[in-house]
Amino acid sequence: MLAIEAHGLRRTYTSRTGWLRPRRTTTEAVRGVSFEVASGELFGLLGPNGAGKTTTIKMLNTLLLPTSGTARVFGHDVVRDPVAVRRRIGYVFGGDRGLYERLSALDNLRYFAELYEVEPCEQRRRIAELLELVGLDGRERERVEGYSRGMRQRLHIARGLLHRPDVLFLDEPSIGVDPVAARDLRRTVADLADAGTTVVLTTHYMAEADELCDRIAVIAGGEIRALGTPGALKARVQERDVLEVEARGVSETELDRVRALPGVRDAAVDDRGSVQLLTVQSDRGTELHARVLAALDGVRLGRVTTREPTLEDAYVAIVAEAERATAGSVGSAAASTEVPA
């Protein structure tokens, strides 16, 4: 049996703006999302902010009702049988919410074990197992307010596993976590998948998704734009070269000049503190060094390197292609419409 089946999921939000002449605004956050997740699979859901990742997750774990479409978790419909779905799932979200800081980790887990209706005779053994799994044994009697961000995230995972869920949703669990703690979290997630737990992971860290996920879906504009293994997604940009340029002062003007160069498929700038990293994707074999540097005339430049494409490059290409398709569609239905209230 499949762990998750989603078919044509849609979620529309309606809000009112204005006072004298109020308008009702309708926004489609998720537009017909469909995918399946096998039992025991580690499935990644990637996308930019506002793409519909969290909305999709919340529909699957019964926190939001779909406007249309259907979803099942181990055969249980998320709308018609939400109680049965909740018994089969755990939900872990990034950030500091969801824990009681004035309590110890042990008391937090005891409290949530009662909420999850874990049998009293099993609670002590189950909590001890989870504290060892997430590496918090020996620190469980300390107050959570003294925990680091990584320790809190590991406690979140322990909380989500108390009732032995068949599916664990991890919504950006490593956000704001330092590299060492993030590595420990990845190891914990991998161990869960190896033990047979179905994991659905959302993240903005491509290296994390590449390392962990069996398959990945990329969502943009509320729609699934690509679905496959990390290797299959990377193959989409295998016939490209990637040029990276460290710079200071790259504006939209210079970026547009680079994008207009023959052979350039995409170009983006990532701000990294006081330095910018310009990444240029081009058709394989295109000689770009001199032309890119000429297009950046007047910009302070640093290191210039060429490398093989990564999952992040494939992700950027997929999202950019989706944005171009959306911008170029003439007469298509808009994501937001306004009508008189």
Automatic annotation (TrEMBL):
<dbReference type="InterPro" id="IPR003439">
    <property type="entry name" value="ABC_transporter-like_ATP-bd"/>
</dbReference>
<dbReference type="GO" id="GO:0005886">
    <property type="term" value="C:plasma membrane"/>
</dbReference>
<keyword id="KW-0547">Nucleotide-binding</keyword>
<feature type="domain" description="ABC transporter">
    <location>
        <begin position="9"/>
        <end position="246"/>
    </location>
</feature>
<keyword id="KW-0046">Antibiotic resistance</keyword>
<comment type="similarity">
    <text>Belongs to the ABC transporter superfamily.</text>
</comment>
<dbReference type="GO" id="GO:0046677">
    <property type="term" value="P:response to antibiotic"/>
</dbReference>
<dbReference type="InterPro" id="IPR050763">
    <property type="entry name" value="ABC_transporter_ATP-binding"/>
</dbReference>
<dbReference type="Pfam" id="PF00005">
    <property type="entry name" value="ABC_tran"/>
</dbReference>
<dbReference type="InterPro" id="IPR027417">
    <property type="entry name" value="P-loop_NTPase"/>
</dbReference>
<dbReference type="GO" id="GO:0005524">
    <property type="term" value="F:ATP binding"/>
</dbReference>
<dbReference type="GO" id="GO:0016887">
    <property type="term" value="F:ATP hydrolysis activity"/>
</dbReference>
<keyword id="KW-0813">Transport</keyword>
<keyword id="KW-0067">ATP-binding</keyword>
<dbReference type="InterPro" id="IPR003593">
    <property type="entry name" value="AAA+_ATPase"/>
</dbReference>
<protein>
    <submittedName>
        <fullName>ABC transporter ATP-binding protein</fullName>
    </submittedName>
</protein>
